[in-house]
Structures are given as C-alpha cells and as structure tokens.
What we know:
The protein is mostly helical. It has helices at residues 15-48, 62-79, 85-90, 104-116, 133-138, and strands spanning 92-96, 140-144. The chain has a domain at 12-26 and 60-144. It has a two-stranded antiparallel ribbon. The chain is elongated, with a radius of gyration of 18 Å.
Amino acid sequence: MTDDPAALQGERAGLVSRCSAALIDAFAVSAVCVLALVCAGAVRYLLLGGPFTLPDPPRRLLPVIGGTLSVVYLTWGWVNGGRTAGDQVMGLRVRSQSELPLGFVRALIRAVLCTAFPIGLLWITVSRHRSSLQDLMVGSAVIYDWGRRPS
Length: 151
C-alpha cells in the first residue's frame, strides 16, 4: 500500500472507495426525491392554497420512483464524463475495459444492474481485477482518476 494517491492513478478502485461513492450517490438520489416532494407540495400550495403539506405518494410507488431516479442519475453521470457525484468525491471514473467512455447503452444497463442488485459490488473482494458483477456483465472498469494530467 502506498501513501501517495498519485501512485494509484489509473489503477482499479477497491471496495471501500466504490462503496463510499455509492453511499454518496444514494444520498444524492434521496435528496433529489425529497426536493421533488417539496416542489410538488409547493406547486399544490400555490395552485390550491391551504396549508403546505408534502404529498404522500402510495408506498408501493416509492421503490419504483427511487429506482428510476437512481438509474437516470447513474446513467447520466457515467455517460457525461464517467463520473457521478460520489465518483467525483472519491476520485473514481467508470470507463470501458478498453479505456474508452462507457457509452449510453452500457451505462444504462450498468445503472439498472447497480440499482437492482447492489450486492454485486461485493464481488470485488474475490476478483483479481477488482471487478464487480456489474463490471463483468457490461465490460466496465472503475479506476482511480483525479483528473491530473502528466506534466
């Protein structure tokens, strides 16, 4: 192990970094869900008057709404620069095995897999190449990338 993060540039990311990024992303998606509820309540208050209250969507729709927002958020981040907010904070980038950007279809499939089966991330602990099950299925890799360019 090294104390110099620059030495890890371009190496495959480990479990702790990737779980930390996923946790940050989960908080970001949760914040968007709460913000959407507040905005919907504000619109209802402005149009109908009365006391301001948050909408109470049916409980069975919450996983569908949260899952859909998660897939959109992850796909958008991985297509536009290869990073979500969590990846940015943790210095990670998602790319294809061939070191190219992931592309929309593969990013979408990876986002669906990560949202529906997050435990697949644990495969990193037994993989020689630090690949999650999602990485193996879509041919992606998560690397340390602080955006530094060699001088």
